[in-house]
Design goal:
single chain; alpha/beta; five-stranded mixed beta sheet; 5 strands; 55% helix
């Protein structure tokens, strides 16, 4: 490729660059250490205290990971940067999270006295009343303000909807999952014949709260095709999509969840 695009001389020069797995790995590690050193230097030299955002999650290999982000002042500009991500190898208790952050601070000449606020995620270790991460932090540094992530508050709020709204959401999810698992091709053919803007419904997942807004908007946009298809297959919820109150609640849910999704993506 280098020979074709840049001629033989460039190919020769590129072939002299070592590209073994070990070499690439070492270079990535060196770059990572250099970036971290620059970020830590900015934190230490910052005229104001910095704030932290912690997110404890589980990766695809079922290993718990702690990701930490920070916001700080640098040259009269507020910056946001990724600080570190480390695995919680044994347990995921609040004390383990605190110890991991303490060790990072100790190894990089940082301290809790330099922190002004901490924002945590929805994980139980972050929320417990007596032994949460926030309680442990306040024990060492009472001046720190501990808050809970607003995005997860919205996600939790959607699980306590009024009964009418919950029922509509449940019916929508059942219809979507029925079509996607049992009759997706037939539904797509019907949409093609009707000249619909969309030909497929989006899959709903409880794990990812953004999916609710996307599903509801797609269902509302395809409500005419849905009622025809469900009637043809004599589905138990076919009459719901002909009910005026049901459609109003569906439109309301679609708008609310779309607004929340937009907020989540912006933040």
């Amino acid at each position: 490729m280098a020979n074709i695009m840049l001629r033989k001389e460039a190919e020769v020069k590129l072939s002299q660059i070592p590209l073994s797995n070990d070499t690439i790995s070492d270079r990535i590690e060196d770059m990572s250490k250099d970036i971290l050193a620059q970020v830590v230097a900015d934190l230490i030299s910052s005229p104001a205290k910095f704030s932290l955002q912690l997110d404890e999650t589980t990766d695809v290999s079922n290993l718990s990971q702690l990701a930490v982000f920070m916001r700080y002042a640098n040259d009269d500009v507020i910056k946001e940067d990724f600080l570190f991500c480390k695995p919680l190898a044994t347990t995921t208790k609040a004390a383990d999270v605190k110890k991991l952050v303490d060790n990072f601070f100790k190894g990089n000449s940082l301290s809790w006295d330099m922190v002004s606020a901490v924002c945590s995620d929805r994980a139980s270790v972050m929320l417990a009343r007596k032994f949460s991460f926030g309680v442990l932090v306040k024990a060492d540094a009472p001046h720190i303000i501990v808050t809970h992530c607003i995005l997860h508050r919205h996600a939790l709020a959607t699980k306590t909807l009024p009964p009418k709204l919950t029922n509509v959401l449940k019916i929508v999810v059942e219809c979507v999952n029925y079509i996607r698992t049992s009759a997706l091709r037939l539904f797509s053919e019907l949409c093609k014949e009707m000249g619909s803007e969309f030909e497929v419904l989006l899959y709903h997942s409880n794990i990812r709260w953004l999916s609710q807004g996307q599903v509801l908007n797609r269902v509302f946009a395809m409500r005419v095709e849905l009622v025809l298809f469900l009637q043809e297959h004599k589905h138990c919820h076919a009459d719901c999509f002909k009910n005026f109150e049901f459609i109003l609640i569906l439109a309301y849910l679609a708008e609310i969840f779309a607004t929340l999704n937009h907020l989540h993506q912006k933040m």
